[in-house]
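Thread: quick sanity check before group meeting

JM: Hey all, I'm pulling together slides for Thursday and realized we never actually wrote out the predicted structure for the chain we discussed last week. Dropping the sequence here so it's in one place. If anyone has concerns about the input, flag it before I start.
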Amino acid sequence: MSALHRPGRTPAVPASPSPGASQEEIRRQNLGAVLRHVHVHGPTSRAELTTRLGLNRSTIGALAADLAAAGLVTEGAPVTTRRGRPSLVVSPRSNRVYAQALSIEPDRLRVARIGLGGRVLDLRDTPRPAGTSAVDAVVPLAALAHEMDRDVAADSIRVGVAVAVTDTTRDRDGRIRIGGPDETLRADIEAAFGDGRAGPTVLAGDLADIAALAEHVRGVAAGVDDLIYLHGSHGVSAGIIIEGRLVVGHGGRSGKVGHMVVNPGGLPCECGSRGCWQTEIGETALLRHAGRDAAPGAVQEVLRAAADGEPEAAAAVARVADWLGFGVANLVNVVNPDTVVFGGSLREIYLSGADVVRQRLDELALPASREHVQLLPAALGPDAALIGAAELAFAHLLADPLHIGSAA
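JM (edit): ok, ran it. Output follows.
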């Protein structure tokens, strides 16, 4: 979606001020650097911030005091047995400052309140009725959020609202329908959440993109600047981060790797093409090869059976893993990432067939690309999209902390 924010990398130190930058601009940048550090890394002493951010002690002290006065952080003495005056510890005020994160998934609608620092404070969900569009989901999402708001303290600061949207929908006949979110989604969410506390804007993006951001900031790929996150559910999509920045493409619709044709003589895909990658590695393909019907929990049953040595299930996992490695090799040749992360149902398929995936990758990928690439299972599980959505919402606060803090 065009509303997707393109977050920059999280720097270890403040960027050098541009020539001619005013003292206020430099101060704002440094405030953002301090708040960003404790948001990503957790409680940090003033002494550590001085070392890690390359600013002097008096500057760090003044910045931390400003953030505390705005209600964004707290400062407290650490528990220590060392002699001398302890360095105050700067901590994000997770219980007071939060983002509202929404997730529109094929079968479920989820809402979370995520505090500064990435702490999940509350999470609620409800089934998504078959055949409902992303716009149809706004009303039940808002109902969940308003129910959640009853438990929020009156002095809390909501810095923004962000939503992760899957590009697949199950219709009333149980079939999967493919298509991007409705263009009016952002406006409808703004209307539903526009009670004066929604922050600067409502942000929205593809679920795989946002889950990639979450794994990049807080998950298995933290600190990795070039990565591909592969998400499997009813379909297959990717979030791609290059040089620390999310690549979203025109209209926010990049990453549809599930529709990369890998087998021209293969099965028809719901998109109208034939032999798409997701027809070989998706959940439907795994169940088909294992001779199982689609049903809740069926994919996990196949994976458990394969682990227990059931021949048909093991063969199904090996076949899907082989095609998974085939597509990954092509993506590695094109993108040359440092890491490929497997999320959603692809996480379990990768864990069950990692040797097969790696073997196919070694056969097909260019040596210069395959020798350094890491293949890793996602770490954040089903909450990745919500955590990533919160990071989108927090971006405005981290860019200009006192603007939002003083507006509360």
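AS: nice. Residues 169-182 have pLDDT under 50 and may be disordered. The CA atoms of residues 29 and 228 lie 29 Å apart.
JM: adding both to the slides.
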